[in-house]
UniProtKB/TrEMBL annotation:
Top-level taxon of origin: Bacteria
GO MF entry, a single one: transposase activity
Signal peptide: none
Organism: Thermus thermophilus
Record protein name field: Transposase IS4-like domain-containing protein
Residue ranges annotated for the Transposase IS4-like domain, each copy included: 216-308
Region (Disordered): 137-164
Any one of the GO BP annotations: DNA transposition
Length: 327
């Protein structure tokens, strides 16, 4: 269960975001971005709205639930029947488009900005360009269910040791754009680009450049060092953070420029980012969405990012009526 923080007379108070509260926000966000449910008499018509399918998948990603656990939770939260496991899998395979989830992420980021904007001062906005930890981006991390590799046996030696080839069932690569508020110690997503398994860096970098008002620092890991990306984002005003391996002095122009105005907070921020999305990668081992196609693996990575943003949003909202703190 996710625990949010409230400021009280004696400091921070903890409260739990109830499943009912989470489901209400999932339904509200899904209804705002989901397209109309197609109607037709041929084939298998959809019994439920597509907004409900999208909300249930986001609800399962939030709590990392299997279908049996989802069914047990929804019996207390919803009236009437709800989609079956086969129906959810059919919707994810046919209609869960990564573009739809990117629109949902954009809608969620605007809502987060609206909740945080009244508390931010003009001086803080002006200083955000100078403080690299206030606005930055996450390096693309590989997301995939590597443990689900299926042994591919050859006809000559079906069980010979060392002859198996592991086949990855689903894989996606995510570049998540994050904002970091040093004063609140708050990290929240405000954009993201996803590609198929082992997508090249220039494709993800081009998608990051398309996001408006992107400035600050770009934190890249060892697998994200394409010069094409650094050049494109450098022209857009993004300052890369490139680590030196083995010590020594920086000689390359990009590395020299990255050391100008260096702030030690950047390395601490890198640890926060990698910790958050390292936790996301471990959550991908669950079974709330089958990665049967490349776009379902991409959608799963975006669902994890949206679920994290929803956790941040719930931590900013006031408690529901009738809530009593236990401290």
């Amino acid at each position: 269960m996710y625990i949010s923080l409230l400021m009280g007379k004696r400091g921070f108070l903890r409260r739990e975001a109830s499943p009912k509260e989470v489901l209400e926000h999932c339904l509200r966000l899904a209804r705002e971005v989901a397209p109309p449910t197609p109607k037709g008499k041929r084939g298998r018509p959809w019994r439920y709205s597509h907004a409900l399918y999208l909300a249930l998948l986001l609800f399962r990603a939030f709590f990392h639930l299997t279908y049996r656990e989802t069914e047990a939770s929804l019996q207390d939260l919803m009236e009437g029947p709800f989609p079956s496991h086969q129906s959810l899998a059919r919707y994810a395979l046919k209609h869960l488009d990564p573009k739809l989830l990117e629109a949902l992420l954009e809608r969620l980021s605007r809502e987060l900005e609206a909740h945080l904007a009244p508390e931010s001062s003009p001086e803080g906005e002006a200083a955000s360009d100078e403080a690299p930890a206030h606005l930055a981006a996450l390096s693309p991390l590989p997301h995939g269910h590597h443990g689900a590799g299926l042994p591919e046996q050859g006809p000559a030696s079906p069980l010979s040791s060392g002859k198996e080839v592991r086949r990855v069932r689903g894989h996606a690569r995510l570049l998540a754009l994050m904002r970091w508020d040093r004063e609140r110690r708050l990290l929240w997503p405000w954009g993201g680009v996803v590609g198929e398994g082992y997508a090249p860096d220039p494709r993800l970098g081009g998608g990051a450049e398309a996001v408006s008002s992107f400035r600050g620092w770009l934190l890249g890991d060892a697998g994200f060092d394409g010069k094409e990306v650094w050049g494109v984002l450098g022209e857009a005003g993004v300052r890369p953070v490139i680590r030196l391996r083995g010590g020594g002095e920086a000689r390359e122009e990009a590395r020299v420029r990255a050391r100008e105005g260096w702030d030690p907070e950047v390395y601490r921020f890198r640890g926060v980012v990698e910790g958050v999305f390292g936790g996301m990668k471990t959550r991908l081992g669950g079974g709330y969405l089958w990665e049967r196609k490349p776009w379902t693996a991409m959608a799963r990575a975006l669902l994890e990012l949206i679920a994290y943003g929803l956790r941040v949003l719930l931590s900013l909202l006031p408690p529901p009526p009738g809530y009593k703190a236990i401290y």
